[in-house]
């Protein structure tokens, strides 16, 4: 395609399998085609077609908010891509591609391509989370472009407007509710246990499922991972921006830039934008608008946008590979290269509504204030947490500048209502003792290695691997090395030969001259 996610990270910058869809052949099978004698059933119009596979689709009715029938129900839609071989499946793998707010069903063919070997004898379960895709989308009047590119004041106002428009139904959009929906689908299908495969936000959702339904989990793969006890001030990402710049500069042949110089240029650029923001005209399908490019927008560009698609086409220019040159030119008085990157990123904004992203992150994620506190107290608690950040904890940025560059952390949810909304998701729930594989791209500042290691540490029986020269998420790389490792793990409980994870080629980097 390229498929731009409508919600990042934990803000999935680009849906891994959505991007892969750009290189896939078009399916020719019908969604209800029988395979190995299994009876075909009438499929709903939205049921996807996957070449060589029978795909079964359906819906389950679920309460929007448990215990409050007056708020109604939601139809949760699912698709099962059936295995190719005769006989019963050896297992069923449930995949979530991230967001919050990413859809799964429309990516069926891309997932099947990435997990082709596993689908010989395993079924693939795709569930569109409530409020997304085929599971009754819910609008709250906040668009992707408005939310991602607005000033911090406007982002906070958008969160409050979203909550007001959703009203008491906002309480229905949580990771716990989505996890229970997945289990309801599992029960409908008569599957005893699921193997869980979470990408980006899916690495948060799947441990929530595992904590709520531990007896139903066979194994888990988490890719582009962050822990349930994520840092509300986003320090791991801030620090990873600098290490990522160093790595891309070191690995090119010939070396294209000096990593330490690039980090110093970043710090200088952040300080200048903090003192004097830059105005950049951006052209979209809805006209031209002036983007105010501040330290926080630089932070977002560096850790979120620059982490996406890294490794998909390593020999072609990427945002991350162009940044050292752009920072060098900015420091030396030439703003044009950085302006161009800002313009290109601004053009990705869409009109897709952000209700699922805002509601889940504001309901679930750990905060630097008490959910039950009134607004004035929340602000005092948050300001105290920010003031307590030690020098250097946010890398080349100020603490305020970096946290305001996040769309799911910092103070963005500080106006989310305390009435009629659930408390944050527990950060240390009981988790099953099952095999767990955690993967991180070592050029990913969005969910960096440090976060992946903490995600792995939540489980007793886990293995962590850093995938060289890939970003968020490492499955983006086209050789299927990463999906091959994860497929072996899901089949056997062991990753097997992982040498390819360290042998992926470095990305192209624009040379810095002089």
UniProtKB/TrEMBL annotation:
Gene3D superfamilies reported in the protein's UniProt record: alpha/beta hydrolase (3.40.50.1820)
Signal peptide: 1-21
Residue span(s) of domain AB hydrolase-1: 95-247
UniProt keyword annotation of Signal present: yes
Record flagged with keyword Oxidoreductase: no
Domain of life: Bacteria
Keywords, in A-Z order: Signal
Residue ranges constituting the Peptidase S33 tripeptidyl aminopeptidase-like C-terminal domain according to the UniProt record: 411-500
GO CC terms in record: membrane
GO molecular function terms listed in the Swiss-Prot or TrEMBL record: catalytic activity
Protein name, per record: Alpha/beta hydrolase
């Amino acid at each position: 395609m390229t498929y731009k996610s409508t919600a990042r990270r934990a803000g999935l910058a680009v849906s891994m399998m959505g991007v892969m869809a750009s290189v896939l052949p078009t399916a020719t099978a019908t969604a209800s085609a029988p395979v190995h004698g299994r009876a075909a059933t009438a499929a709903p119009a939205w049921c996807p077609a996957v070449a060589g596979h029978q795909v079964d689709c359906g819906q389950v009715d679920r309460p929007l908010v448990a215990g409050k029938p007056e708020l109604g129900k939601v139809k949760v839609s699912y698709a099962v891509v059936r295995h190719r071989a005769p006989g019963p499946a050896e297992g069923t793998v449930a995949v979530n591609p991230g967001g919050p707010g990413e859809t799964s069903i429309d990516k069926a063919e891309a997932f099947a391509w990435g997990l082709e070997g596993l689908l010989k004898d395993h079924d693939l379960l795709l569930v569109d989370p409530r409020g997304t895709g085929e599971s009754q989308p819910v609008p709250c009047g906040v668009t992707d472009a408005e939310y991602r590119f607005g000033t911090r004041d406007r982002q906070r106002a958008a969160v409050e407007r979203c909550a007001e428009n959703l009203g008491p139904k906002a309480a229905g959009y949580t990771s716990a509710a989505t996890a229970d929906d997945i289990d309801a689908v599992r029960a409908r299908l008569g599957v005893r246990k699921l193997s869980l495969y979470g990408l980006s936000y899916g690495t948060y959702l799947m441990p929530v499922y595992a904590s709520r339904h531990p007896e139903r989990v066979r194994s888990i793969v988490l890719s582009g991972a962050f822990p349930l006890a994520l840092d509300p001030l986003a320090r791991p990402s801030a620090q990873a921006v600098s290490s990522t710049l160093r790595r891309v500069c070191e690995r090119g042949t010939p070396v294209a830039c000096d990593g330490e110089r690039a980090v110093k240029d970043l710090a200088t650029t952040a300080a200048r934008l903090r003192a004097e923001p830059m105005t950049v005209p951006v052209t979209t399908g809805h006209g031209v608008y002036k983007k105010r490019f501040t330290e926080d927008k630089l932070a977002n560009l560096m850790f979120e946008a620059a982490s996406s698609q890294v490794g998909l086409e390593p020999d072609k220019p990427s945002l991350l590979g162009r940044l050292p040159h752009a920072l060098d030119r900015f420091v030396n008085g030439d703003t044009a290269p950085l302006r161009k990157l800002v313009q290109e990123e601004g053009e990705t904004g869409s009109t897709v509504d952000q209700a699922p992203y805002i509601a889940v992150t504001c309901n679930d994620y750990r905060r630097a204030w008490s959910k039950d506190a009134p607004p004035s107290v929340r602000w005092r608690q948050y300001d105290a947490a920010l003031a307590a950040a030690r020098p250097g904890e946010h890398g080349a940025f100020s603490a305020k500048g970096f946290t305001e560059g996040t769309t799911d952390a910092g103070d963005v949810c500080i106006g989310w209502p305390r009435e009629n909304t659930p408390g944050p998701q527990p950060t240390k729930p009981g988790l099953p003792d099952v095999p767990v594989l955690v993967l991180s791209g070592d050029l990913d500042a969005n969910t960096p290695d440090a976060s992946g290691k903490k995600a792995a540490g939540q489980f007793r029986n886990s293995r962590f691997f850093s995938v060289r020269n890939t970003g968020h998420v490492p499955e983006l790389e086209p050789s299927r090395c990463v999906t091959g490792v994860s497929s072996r793990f899901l089949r056997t409980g062991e990753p097997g030969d992982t040498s390819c994870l360290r042998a992926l080629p470095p990305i192209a980097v624009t040379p810095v001259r002089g």
